[in-house]
Design goal:
Purple Acid Phosphatase, chain A, domain 2, alpha/beta, 2 domains, 6-stranded mixed beta sheet, about 25% strand
Length: about 400
C-alpha cells in the first residue's frame, strides 16, 4: 500500500510541475507536448517588373537589337544585374509586351480604335523568337502577363504562337480570362492580367469582376496586373484610379500597372498597394529610350494561420533599363547612390498626391493604415472555363473593343 501511495504522490507532483511550467515557461509545455504548436507564420515575397520586349520593333535594324545581343551574349546576359533580387524572392512577375513567333510575318493594320473609341495610329509592331523566353526564365522571372496592346501585333497567329512558346518554356502566362494559380510555400497565389490600353473600361471591369471572383474561390493572395493609361503620362488618369480601386475592392491584395513606358506614382488604398506604372524593363522596342528610369516593385506578404495580415512590407528598387548611359543595351540595372536617390525622388514626386513617400532605401514612410476594410463583394465566379483564344482577341482584330 505504501509503495502505491509513493507512486501516486510522484504522479501528482509531476502533474503539478508540468502545469506550473506551462505558465512560467510556455515553451516547456510545447516541447513536452508535440501536438501543442504556436501560430503558423508564412511569409512570401513577390517582385514585379514592367514591359519586357524580347525582340525589336519592325523598323529597327537587327544590329544592336535585343536579338542581336541574344545571339552574341546569350540568355543570361539580359537580367544578370537584377537576377539576385529575383532569385531571393519567392515569385517574380513580368509583362511580356510583344509577339514571339517564328512564322508570323503579317502585321496588323496601322489605324486602330483605342480604348476611348478614337482612331489611333499604330507605329510599333514588336516581334521576337520563342527561344528568347530563356532570357527571362534564367533571369529569375516566374510568371508572365500578356494582356496588352502588343499581343496582336502579328494577328491571331502571332498571339497563339506566343502563348504556345510560354507553355513550351514552362512560363505560366496570364491574359484576360486565362488566370494563373501557383502554390508558394503552401500559399495559393492567383494572378489576373487585364488590358485597358485598347479595351474599354467597361470591358476591363468585366474581366476583373469575373477573374477575381474565380481566384477568390481557391486563392489566399491575389495579384491584379493592369495594362492601362496613356504613354509617357506622368500621372494616372481617372480610369486607372477607378480600376485600381476596383481591383482592391473586389479582392486584389496587390495591383501592378504597366504601359506608360515611364514611372507613375504609387498609392496605398485600404492598406493595399497600387503601382500605377513600373516603366519599362528589358525593353527591345527602342534603341534610344525616352526615359530610362524604371523600378522593381516588391512586397512581402505574411500569413498567420493561413490568414493574410495587412502590412507595409513594401520596397521599390530604383532601376534603369540599360547598364549603359546613352544607349539601350536591354540590361536593366539597380541604381544606388545619387542615381538611385534621384529615381526615388521621381517616384515620390509622382506619388505625392496619394500622400505616399519612399525613403532612400526604397521603403515607404507611412503610418499604419486607418481603413483596411474592403466592401463586401458578392460577385459569383462564372462556371465557364477560359477559352484557348479569348473572345476579346477576335474583337480587337475586328476593331471592336
Amino acid at each position: 500500500m505504501r509503495k502505491m501511495s509513493v507512486r501516486k504522490t510522484a504522479k501528482i507532483c509531476t502533474l503539478l510541475f508540468f502545469i506550473c511550467s506551462s505558465f512560467l515557461w510556455p515553451g516547456y509545455a510545447a516541447q513536452r507536448n508535440p501536438e501543442h504548436t504556436s501560430s503558423d507564420i508564412v511569409s512570401i515575397t513577390i517582385s514585379a517588373v514592367g514591359d519586357c520586349t524580347l525582340g525589336k520593333n519592325y523598323k529597327m535594324s537587327y544590329k544592336k537589337s535585343w536579338g542581336d545581343l541574344y545571339s552574341r551574349k546569350g540568355a543570361h546576359y539580359f537580367l544578370k544585374k537584377t537576377a539576385s533580387v529575383f532569385q531571393e524572392d519567392d515569385l517574380t512577375i513580368a509583362n511580356l509586351e510583344g509577339v514571339l513567333s517564328a512564322r508570323a510575318k503579317k502585321r496588323t493594320k496601322r489605324m486602330y480604335n483605342d480604348r476611348l473609341g478614337k482612331r489611333y495610329r499604330r507605329d510599333y509592331w514588336h516581334l521576337g523568337k520563342p527561344v528568347y523566353l530563356k532570357a527571362l526564365k534564367t533571369g529569375g522571372v516566374d510568371v508572365l502577363t500578356f494582356a496588352n496592346n502588343h499581343n496582336i501585333d502579328y494577328g491571331l497567329k502571332g498571339f497563339k504562337d506566343t502563348v504556345a512558346a510560354c507553355e513550351k518554356y514552362g512560363m505560366p502566362v496570364a491574359y484576360y480570362d486565362t488566370l494563373v494559380r501557383c502554390s508558394v510555400k503552401g500559399i495559393n497565389v492567383g494572378i489576373i492580367a487585364v488590358d485597358q490600353s485598347y479595351c474599354s473600361r467597361k470591358t476591363a471591369e468585366a474581366y476583373l469582376r469575373s477573374g477575381i471572383a474565380q481566384l477568390k474561390t481557391d486563392c489566399q493572395l491575389i495579384v491584379a496586373c493592369m495594362h492601362w493609361g496613356d504613354n509617357y503620362k506622368k500621372r494616372p488618369d481617372k480610369d486607372q484610379k477607378y480600376l485600381g480601386h476596383l481591383c482592391v475592392n473586389l479582392g486584389a491584395d496587390l495591383v501592378i500597372g504597366t504601359h506608360a513606358h515611364i514611372i507613375q506614382g504609387v498609392e496605398r488604398y485600404k492598406g493595399r498597394y497600387i503601382f500605377y506604372s513600373l516603366g519599362n524593363f528589358s525593353y527591345g522596342g527602342r534603341l534610344v529610350p525616352k526615359d530610362p528610369d524604371c523600378m522593381i516593385a516588391q512586397q512581402t506578404f505574411t500569413f498567420v494561420d493561413g490568414r493574410l495580415e495587412v502590412n507595409d512590407d513594401v520596397r521599390v528598387y530604383p532601376c534603369r533599363i540599360s547598364s549603359k548611359k546613352n544607349i539601350n543595351n536591354y540590361q536593366p540595372v539597380i541604381k544606388k547612390g545619387a542615381a538611385g536617390r534621384k529615381i526615388i525622388k521621381k517616384i515620390n514626386t509622382r506619388s505625392q498626391k496619394f500622400g505616399l513617400k519612399f525613403k532612400n532605401n526604397g521603403r515607404p514612410s507611412v503610418s499604419p493604415a486607418k481603413n483596411t476594410k474592403r466592401p463586401v463583394n458578392n460577385d459569383i465566379a462564372p462556371g465557364s472555363s477560359a477559352k484557348e483564344v479569348p473572345d476579346i482577341i477576335y474583337k480587337l482584330l475586328s476593331k471592336k473593343r
